[in-house]
């Protein structure tokens, strides 16, 4: 029978303890579950109130809705947004005017008035803060997250969100990828933009997050229509049913709650070598 030297055994034990500690810390960050899933919906459109929120409410799941302050749907349906917030959905900040960098390729939809490349940093910051005032008037909350319009981070090479860090718990970007808690950049959280993918595709992403014990953020626009970027109602329903059926293993919560948990969790200890 082969013998194992004490030094080798000690190293093996240290690696096992370190790995277990890392797994326990990760589980604690995800509310003692395998992974965290955040459902985000951009642009404050009718489909949010007509399709997405009723679907979430039907299975008692909560999402994050990034509102454009100047959206007519915010003004016309403000009481409905307020009721959604009262039921636990987050009303996130998607800027007052949704400015995007019109100097980039494929940005023909950007108007001169809402061209981020023509903004000053102070204007961008002021408009985002003005939208926070509006959102606070709707839901009475001060803790919330931000979503970069079009995923644009800079004005003239300057990251305008740097001045907004005290105003938000975190900010969501548009770069896809699953991340452990220690990998998450709270100034630019990864997300998967969904446009036409099947329910099986959405569920497979969740399964990957479960296996890797990571954060998965979905970025939806239209649900069952209402936007050029859209997810089919059936596919969206399949995803919600899977999440509900596995809620003992998957933490589904608004972005602000997940980001706050990441901020408050101690860094995971790396496995010893």
Automatic annotation (TrEMBL):
It holds the Pfam family Polysacc_deac_1. Residues 35-253 form the NodB homology domain. The keyword Signal applies. Keywords: Signal. Residues 1-23 form the signal peptide. InterPro entries: Glyco_hydro/deAcase_b/a-brl (IPR011330), NODB_dom (IPR002509), Polysacch_Deacetylase (IPR051398). The keyword Signal applies. Coiled coil: none annotated. This is Polysaccharide deacetylase family protein. It comes from Hymenobacter nitidus.
